[in-house]
Design brief:
Blueprint: H1 2-14, E1 23-27, E2 55-61, E3 66-72, E4 77-82, E5 89-93, H2 101-115
Antiparallel strand pairs: 1-2, 2-3, 3-4, 4-5
Signal peptide: 1-20
Keywords: Signal
Length: 120
């Protein structure tokens, strides 16, 4: 499961879309098609990530970088990454070994902070 989440996070870093807000691409169900809305963003290629069951994955295109966060709902761990020199890192264990969207939101905040050069 961890390898599948990491693969989706890596795919999110290497592919993508330009959006001004966090986009959810995996919410425990089927992957969503992600489309380019603004070619001026960091990511300029349409892609469709492959989501494993029970995973939550979000990304945000911040024009100068992309941040990605994810969690395994049943695996109890959240992860984060960014394209500003950041690799995929474990973020934290989720409460009660069950991850929720709030765990991914927290990981996303940290990924964006580290990508901006603050809070390292």
């Amino acid at each position: 499961m961890k390898k599948q989440i990491l693969a989706v996070l890596f795919l999110g870093l290497m592919s993508g879309v330009s959006h001004a807000a966090v986009e959810n691409v995996c919410s425990g169900g089927e992957a969503k098609e992600v489309k380019v809305k603004d070619p001026a963003g960091f990511i300029v290629t349409t892609f469709k990530p492959k989501c494993s069951a029970n995973t939550i994955v979000d990304y945000e295109d911040l024009d100068s970088m992309v941040a990605v966060a994810g969690a395994s709902v049943k695996g109890g761990n959240s992860f984060m990454a960014n394209s500003a020199g950041g690799s995929v890192l474990p973020f934290k264990k989720c409460a009660g070994k069950v991850c929720a969207q709030t765990d991914v939101d927290d990981a996303m905040t940290k990924a964006k902070t580290l990508g901006s050069g603050a809070g390292s």
